[in-house]
Amino acid sequence: MLHHEDVKGVYEKLQTVPGIEMVCEPVVSEYPKPDGGVFRVLGISFFDPSGYFVEVNQFV
Predict the structure, then answer these.
(1) What is the pLDDT of residues 11-41, one digit of tens each?
(2) Most exposed among 3, 4, 23, 31, judged by the fewest C-beta atoms under 10 Å?
(3) Which helix (H) or strand (E) holds 9?
(4) How far is CA 49 from the centre of its chain?
(5) Exposed (0-12), middle (13-18) or buried (19+): which is 26, by Cβ within 10 Å?
(6) Domains (ranges, CATH) in the chain?
(7) Strand order in the sheet with 38-47
(8) Could you give phi then psi for residue 42, rounded to 5 degrees?
């Protein structure tokens, strides 16, 4: 899992990388905060050319 400030940019660049298998295009997910409210996270996930699963997230 990685944090990045431009998930959409990472997603666009990955479209040109041979061997990348996208699992999830950019999508916003919400996770509960301990004190109430939610965290909003934009994320993508993919398998790299070596077969490793990678998730890249950005707080929004």
Answers:
(1) 999 999 999 999 999 999 999 999 999 999 9
(2) 31
(3) helix 7-14
(4) 17
(5) middle
(6) 2-59 (3.30.720)
(7) 2-3, 53-59, 38-47, 21-32
(8) -90, 125
